[in-house]
Amino acid sequence: MRRRTEGFTAGPSLGYDDVEQAERSAERARIRAAQAARSAARSLEKTARLHERVAEVDEQTVRQGASSTDVHDESAAFHRQSAQGDYKLAADKRNEADAGES
């Protein structure tokens, strides 16, 4: 258990205005955090769509008879998996933003 040291003096007491200011500052911080989370979600969704596009190109290349089909198949699978991961992260960020605004 921690004991009070000799010579301890309390700081200045906080008034109503100080508490109100702190609450306003905290609310602004929550809003900024939610905006940042939504921005991150939009960015992740954009990246996911780009991964899907690359996967489509790889799949189309295989359908057209490309010689290294295994490379394109692996690439398509990687990009599909990356897209799924990015969509999940985006959903998590949106949930984070919603929770922060509650």
User: What integer is the average pLDDT?
Assistant: 90
Instruction: Provide the low-confidence segments as ranges.
Output: none
Summing up helix and strand content along with how strands pair, one would put the structural category as mainly alpha
Number of helices, counting only DSSP H or I runs of 4 residues or more: 2
Q: How much strand content do the residues show?
A: under 5%
Outline, from the CA principal axes?
A: elongated
- Mind describing the biggest β-sheet? none
Report the helical percentage.
over 70%
Number of DSSP strand runs: 0
Q: In angstroms, what is the radius of gyration? A: 26 Å
> Termini, distance in Å?
36 Å
Helix and strand sequence: HH
What does this structure look like?
The chain has helices spanning 16-63, 69-100. It has a domain at 43-102. The protein starts with 15 loop residues before the first helix and ends with a helix. It is built from 2 helices and no strands. With 102 residues, the chain is an all-alpha fold. Helix 1 (16-63) packs antiparallel against helix 2 (69-100). 78% of the residues lie in helices and 0% in strands. Residues 21-30, 89-102 have a biased composition (Basic and acidic residues).
